[in-house]
Amino acid sequence: MNSMQVKKEFPASIEQVFELLSKHATYNVAFSPIQVERIKDSADPERPDGIGSVRRMGFGPVKPLKEQITLLEPNQRIEYKIIKNPLIKHHLGIIEFESKGADKTLVTYTIELQARAPFVSKLILAQLKTAIKLGFAKLAKTL
């Protein structure tokens, strides 16, 4: 299984960082110009971006990538998977949160990926790693 990992320290409390990264709309800022839109709410009305929610990603009206939140442990961990994608056999995103003090939080973002074409996985992961590093740097400045 191919995977990649990005670690980033944010200058804010674990509660603030978790709240930021648990919202689908945040990824519009992090991964601009890619657009992210929630298309299905979770069953929890207080956390519409929680377990079971689905987001679409892409550009303009073309948003072919769909991700579903499969685990959400407040201030600890978020997991999601790509759904209904014929090019991807396996995709698991894991975002972990660790408090490093009152105003410091370490975020560890891991992605496991297996594309249908074996050589493609490493290319996709390399691009994702670069995008996540840049996106996290942008988000850290907003806190």
UniProtKB/TrEMBL annotation:
Pfam families: Polyketide_cyc2. InterPro entries: Polyketide_cyclase/dehydratase (IPR019587), START-like_dom_sf (IPR023393). CDD domains: PYR_PYL_RCAR_like (cd07821). This is SRPBCC family protein. It comes from Acinetobacter wanghuae.
